[in-house]
Structure formats: structure tokens, C-alpha cells
Amino acid sequence: MPIEMQRREEQDRSIAGRFEMRRRLPDPVLDGIVTDICGYRETAPGHFRNVEYASLAVPLVISFAEPFAIGLGKAPGDNDRFASFAAGLFAGPVMIESFGTACCVQINFTPLGARRFFRLPMSELTDSMVVLDDVLGAEGMALREQLGNAPDWTARFDLAEAFVTARLASAAETPLEIAWAYDRIIASGGRTRIASIAERLGWSRKHLAEKFTDATGIGPKTLSRIVRFNRALGLSRQPTAGWADIAADCGYADQAHLVREFRDLAGETPTALVSR
Questions:
Q1: For residue 76, what is the enclosing H or E element?
Q2: Which of 63, 176, 178, 211 has the fewest CB atoms below 10 angstroms from its CB?
Q3: Mutual orientation of helices 243-250 and 255-266 as an angle, nearest 10°?
């Protein structure tokens, strides 16, 4: 998931011209709720494979064509086909395959934004893909039909933004304590001690974990691991970075600890991952 994006739609065709992708950074009214909206269409036959590493994006995928094959922490099997769905947080690599005919709109939510939008405990989505009508019912199916009938990506993105904005109008706000705890973990790069957050809130660690899991789908410790991993991955792409220094900077016990975390959250060693 790109961290920085221009506030505009952009189109990217692969070198081989096998797919098109458009992105939109959402309207400012959705700041902190939606990170971006994507349109994806494959334009030539083929077998596409992609691996997404542990992230904090909660996607809502609305498909108009063949389903994707998706495996959590493993290669997808014959029964792992998903068309329109929402996916909760997963602390590991996600393997995605498609076959040259996929077409979809994907709305990427923040964890706290997803809790407000779906109006469900996020633990109901953790480590899974839940089909569209189970998370949004008739509203979701109507949205899919509208998006499918729209004349172009711009119209689809406008519809998607309007749908999210309208649904949020009557959604409950995120509890201030949880929003504060979430922001502390993000701002610290995952290095803040969970015990200190609970202490500042006057909560037990168990109570914090329960509230946090309802809001994000995972506990604060797991969220910290994902935040720290993504920071380390970002630092590794700087030309002068060394793994030992990155491990120390990100708060890992040592380089071996960093390697184990990369294996768990990305399915690869740091060196293999960065060499791609």
C-alpha cells in the first residue's frame, strides 16, 4: 500500500499492458477513514501472482468479473475464490492470484474507519474474507450494481465516495480512548509499551486489549508489530540502511528478531524481500 499519493486520479499500465489501475485519494471528509480508492482491470490473458505483506488496510473489494484466488499465509487452493468481499487485518502475507479477467473497485479503510463504516466488531473480519452481502446486505448489492453500470472509473469513484460518506453519517464515533491509543502506537512506530498506554488510560491491559480488538480486529501488541514491520521495510529501502541499524532503530531486540518478524509478517527474509 503506497504511503504517499498525489491528490488526483492516476492511471498506470503495466509494461506489458496487461492491466490498468487507477487510484484516487479520497475527499478530505474521509481523512482517517479511507486511505485510497482503486480501480483495477486486467486487459490480457495471463496468470497474475501478487503477495501483500501485513498491513493496516481493511479493503472492501467490489468485483464485476472473475473472482480472485486468495490465500492467507499460503498459496490459494481451488476453494479460495472470492469476488466481492471485505477482508480484516491479517498478521502475515496474503497471496493473491488472478487469471487475466479480473475487474474491481477497492476501497481501502483504516482499521478505525472500517469499524465505523461496517458497524461490526472488527474481530468478525480478522483473518478472513467476508462476502459483500454478509457485511453490507442489500445496500452492498445495490452498490455493486450501480458501480457495474457506471460509464467509467471517475463515475465509479464518485459513487463509492458518496456511499461511504452517507453510511458514515449515522455511524457511531470511535471512542476517544481507543483513538488516542491507536494514534500513540502509530506515532511511535510501534515502539510504545502497551502497559504504559493502559496505565495512562487507567485501564487494565486486558480491558485495553478487548476494546482494541473490537475496534481494529487485533490487539495493540499485534498492531504494534505490524506498524514496526512496515517502518523497518520503509527504512530498508533507503540506500545506506543496514539491517542491524534498522533493527535497533525500530526497537527489535536484535537483527535475528527482525528476521523472524519479517518471516512471520511477509513470509520472506528481509534480504529476499528487499531484493524484489
A1: none
A2: 176
A3: 80
Q: What is the torsional sign of CA 179, 261, 203, 128?
A: positive
Instruction: Give pLDDT tens digits for 162-198.
Output: 999 999 998 999 999 999 999 999 999 999 999 999 9
C-alpha cell at 219: 490487539
Q: Could you give the residue range(s) of every CATH 1.10.10.60 domain in the chain? A: 176-275
Distance CA 249, CA 273 (A): 19
The whole-angstrom distance between residue 201's C-alpha and the CA centroid of its chain comes to 27
CA atoms within 13 A on the CB side of 271: 5
Confidence (pTM): 0.91
CATH 1.10.10, domain 3-169, yes or no:
no
Max Cα–Cα distance, the chain, nearest Å: 57
What is the assigned CATH class of domain 176-275?
mainly alpha
> Who's near 42: CB < 8 A, 6+ residues apart?
18, 19, 48, 98, 100, 101, 102, 103
Closest CA to 40 of 162, 147, 161: 147
Q: First vs last Cα of the chain: how many Å apart?
A: 16
Joined together, the cell numbers standing for residue 139 give: 445496500
pLDDT at 18: 85
Residue range(s) occupied by CATH 2.60.120 in the chain: 3-169
Q: Is 184 exposed, middle or buried (0-12, 13-18, 19+ CB in 10 A)?
A: middle
Residue 109 near residue 35 (C-beta atoms within 8 A): yes
Is there a contact between 208 and 182 (Cβ–Cβ < 8 Å)? no
Could you tell me how many residues make up the chain? 276
Pick from 138, 135, 136, 86: nearest CA to 109: 86
Q: What is the pLDDT of residue 16?
A: 57
